[in-house]
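so my prof wants the structure for this chain in the tokens format not the other one, which i didnt know existed until like an hour ago. anyway here's the sequence
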Amino acid sequence: MLVYAIYVIIAALYFYALVDCIRTPAARMRLLPKVGWLAVLVLFPVLGAIGWRNLGKQSSPVEGRPSVA
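here's what i got, hopefully its the right format
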């Protein structure tokens, strides 16, 4: 049963990264253009999802907080 839970977690992470990549505007992409990130996600699902989660997009600034230059 634990094996199935791991597969479900990996699938959820992959689909989250794929949908998030598709919905993210090109101006917030880091390191690669959108097509590049989609290719990485399709070719390397687990590593691509982890890479997207950690390196893929810039975080949006929080309102009321000064940005660090």
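also thought this was worth mentioning. The chain has one domain: 2-56.
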